[in-house]
Design goal:
The structure is a single chain. By secondary structure, the protein is of the alpha+beta class. The protein folds into 2 domains: about 5-260, CorA soluble domain-like (Beta Polymerase, domain 2), CATH 3.30.460; about 270-325, Magnesium transport protein CorA, transmembrane region (Methane Monooxygenase Hydroxylase, Chain G, domain 1, Up-down Bundle). Helix content is about 55%, strand content about 15%. It contains 9 helices and 7 strands. A 7-stranded mixed β-sheet has the order 2-1-3-7-6-5-4. A hairpin with a 3-residue loop joins strand 6 (about 95-110) and strand 7. Helix 6 runs parallel beside helix 8. The relative contact order is 0.09.
Length: about 325
């Protein structure tokens, strides 16, 4: 029974797994693309047909679809687990919502075969399978080189995060700095930042995995291998930089929001203070003339009321002019 997709690394020709009795006897290197469910279901048959043996502890790690990015090796093969994101979606109608899926790929790299175990995610898998038909595939002459191109493709998924994240940051900026709106989406903003931090954690796990691979690999540290490792590390560092920059921008935006809110409150308090300063002397005048004394100057003068009102109006006008000259209003 055929399961998975077995093909020559330097060509598009598919191979029948059952026709192989010893993978080490093949003249060309091969790669097996298989889902996690099929791998577990056909593990004894797979090991028998390919004449390989997989460590039981590694089988347990493969069973765990939530296992973080990880590297380990035996005398026969190296195992790499890489968790990546895909299917990024943005919702910006009312509030920005970041949606993405996480997928786990496991690579078992033998001398003559590369086994790629996936989660059977249609969106990412279709793009990943397209990697094998691109021109770059013709440059893959061994499992290690195909492993590099595969990891390079999966790490590129993090770089696709830049465009939707930038778009959503502008949406948050508009919501938080709009003077005519009262921002209340704090729970949504905290959840959004938590999603960003979760992606950052994935990248940090990958960083540790690449460092372990560099330190404990059984392959010779030849120039090409060193260049490929550095390239993968650069891809991951770029992703970390993008995510950290977005997180810092969110923190800065929160500070700007509170600064703008404080400035708005100060503007309101300044207007109230100016109004109070203008009416304070006028209140003093009305308080004086409101005293219940029998004999008060100009109290019985015919034009005392109009004179007092004129003085109060003139005093208020003078105060407003002084405040405007000082640019307080």
């Amino acid at each position: 029974m055929q399961y998975g997709q077995l093909f020559y690394i330097d060509g598009n020709q598919n191979i029948d797994i059952e026709a192989i009795h010893d993978v080490n006897a093949l003249e060309k290197s091969v790669a097996l693309l298989i889902s996690r469910q099929d791998f577990i279901a056909h593990l004894p048959e797979l090991q028998a047909n390919l004449q390989i043996e997989i460590n039981p502890h590694h089988v347990s790690d493969i069973l765990n679809a939530e296992h973080p990015s990880f590297y380990d090796s035996t005398a026969d093969y190296e195992m790499i687990i890489l968790r990546t994101i895909y299917d990024l979606k943005t919702i910006n109608d009312i509030k920005p919502v970041l949606q993405y899926a996480v997928s786990s790929y496991v690579f078992l790299c033998f001398n003559n075969i590369l086994i790629i175990i996936h989660n059977d995610d249609p969106v990412l898998l279709s793009r990943f399978q397209g990697l094998f038909t691109q021109s770059k595939k013709n440059k893959c002459k061994n499992p290690l080189s195909l492993l590099y191109f595969s990891l390079n493709f999966l790490l590129d998924q993090f770089l696709l995060f830049r465009a939707p994240a930038t778009q959503q940051f502008k949406c948050w900026q508009r919501l938080m700095l709009d003077e005519n709106s009262s921002f209340k989406l704090w729970n949504e903003l905290i959840n959004y930042k938590s999603e960003i931090e979760a992606i950052a954690d994935l990248c940090e796990d990958i960083e540790d995995m690449l460092e372990d691979w560099r330190r404990y690999t059984r392959y010779q540290m030849e120039q090409e291998f060193i260049i490929n490792l550095n390239d993968l590390d650069n891809h991951n560092q770029r992703a970390i930089h993008i995510i950290e920059k977005l997180g810092n921008n969110i923190d800065t935006l929160i500070q700007l929001h509170f600064s703008a809110l404080s400035h708005r409150n100060n503007q309101i308090l300044r207007v109230l203070a100016i109004i109070s300063a203008i009416f304070l002397p006028l209140t003093l005048i009305t308080g004086i003339f409101g005293m219940n004394f029998t004999n008060m100057p100009i109290l019985h003068v015919e034009y005392a009321y109009y004179l007092t009102m004129g003085v109060m109006f003139l005093l208020g006008l003078i105060l407003m002019t002084v405040f405007r000259l000082k640019r307080w209003i």
